[in-house]
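A quick aside before the break. I want you to see a complete sequence-to-structure record at least once, exactly as it would be stored in a machine-readable document. Don't worry about memorizing anything.
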Amino acid sequence: MDDTLDTLARADGARLKAFAETLIPDLGAIEVVESRSGLVMLPIRDTAAGVAFHLGEVLMSEAHIRKGDVSGYGMRRGHDLEASMAMALVDLAMATDVRLSECRAFCDAQAEALQKADDDVLRRVEATRVNMETF
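That is the input. The structure line, written in tokens, reads:
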């Protein structure tokens, strides 16, 4: 399964914007279908009861662009329309094979950085774990 959009959604915003900016000349004219921010419901599954419920609302930014019949999409947490547009630009570039190897290299580097950050958080959480015995 391709996790490219998952990676781009969590990628460093400044790096994403800087990289996407370099793709614009190669992509040429594009149509901006939608660029907006708003609240979306955050669904969570209660593992004990096995039911889904909405934890609350999350502010998201979304961008949808098109070049001919090919679309690019971006959705990121927060009110950063530039970052969601940058995500959509990278998605469109990959879908149209524009500088594909550079886009893949960027996504791979971001995925590696995110994995390292996630591992660090898990190590810090594990360090606080207390094992309790019940008599």
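Two observations worth writing down. The two ends are 45 Å apart (CA to CA). The first strand starts at residue 31 and ends at 46. We'll return to this after the break.
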